[in-house]
């Protein structure tokens, strides 16, 4: 195991990324365990931090850890030693705390346990998937050509130019896929060619920016997109939500006015929260 780690992670320069990934996953699991304990009203578990009645969300600590880890990483010149590993780990831990409250940042209000709060879990899952791909050696399509292109003959230069054009087309397909609401397909297409281009050609997800711009109400394209969404996409979304709920808890509270208490509308010892705690 030690030999494998040295040859696969350290020797390839992926030690900082590995430490970031491990700290990110561990940080997310730990903070989700903590907030679920708070939501369930476990008496022996430390509650929310509220000095002077001010609830300090864990995103605040995440920003601080990211600053410390990020600045330290800029100062450390040895990219394979323990200092850079620690800095990357701090940055990963901070990133987990920040993305776990991504929905709060997006909506500028506490929606942690509401339906809108699922955006935080989605953001974490996307970050884990992308970091995992990078850690295993995947690179965006065309990365090697952009960074490894050197002087060569006319045919070699023309071939490199053609491959770069294909990479740009693939990247454009990923952008269009994201605008069409196909988040996972668009991101996967950055690494695997053609997937994003196919997704960009197909119908958009109802409610996506592309659908709002290009599919007028009552149009045949919108009706077809809605039918396809109900038949294919929504069953997959339900499966994804079940998996997320096993890890992160149920986002089942109704949006409410700010109460200034707890991790979400309602306090950890509130009957409404206790009745829905996972």
Automatic annotation (TrEMBL):
The keyword Protease does not apply. The keyword Transmembrane applies. Keywords: Membrane, Transmembrane, Transmembrane helix. The lineage of its organism: Bacteria, Bacillati, Actinomycetota, Actinomycetes, Streptosporangiales. This is Integral membrane protein. It comes from Streptomonospora litoralis. The chain crosses the membrane at residues 15-35, 56-76, 82-107, 119-138, 158-179, 186-205. Residues 257-278 are annotated as: Disordered.
């Amino acid at each position: 195991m030690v030999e494998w780690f040295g040859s696969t992670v350290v020797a390839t320069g992926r030690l900082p990324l590995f430490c970031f990934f491990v700290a990110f996953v561990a940080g997310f699991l730990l903070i989700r365990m903590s907030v679920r304990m708070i939501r369930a009203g476990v008496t022996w578990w430390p509650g929310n931090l509220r000095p002077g009645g001010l609830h300090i969300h864990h995103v605040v600590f995440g920003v601080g850890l990211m600053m410390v880890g990020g600045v330290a990483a800029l100062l450390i010149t040895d990219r394979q030693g323990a200092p850079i590993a620690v800095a990357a780990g701090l940055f990963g831990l901070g990133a987990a705390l920040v993305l776990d409250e991504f929905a709060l940042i997006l909506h500028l209000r506490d929606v942690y346990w509401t339906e809108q709060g699922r955006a935080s879990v989605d953001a974490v899952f996307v970050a884990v998937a992308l970091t995992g791909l990078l850690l295993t050696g995947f690179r965006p399509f065309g990365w090697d050509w952009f960074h490894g292109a050197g002087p060569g003959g006319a045919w070699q230069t023309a071939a490199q130019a053609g491959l770069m054009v294909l990479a740009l087309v693939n990247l454009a397909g990923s952008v269009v896929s994201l605008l069409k609401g196909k988040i996972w397909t668009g991101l996967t297409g950055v690494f695997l060619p053609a997937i994003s281009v196919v997704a960009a050609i197909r119908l958009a997800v109802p409610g996506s920016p592309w659908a709002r711009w290009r599919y007028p109400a009552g149009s045949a394209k919108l009706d077809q997109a809605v039918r396809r969404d109900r038949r294919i996409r929504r069953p997959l979304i339900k499966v994804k939500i079940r998996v997320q709920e096993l890890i992160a808890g149920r986002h089942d509270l109704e949006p409410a006015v700010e109460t200034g208490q707890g991790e979400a509308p309602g306090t950890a010892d509130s009957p409404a929260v206790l009745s829905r705690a996972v």
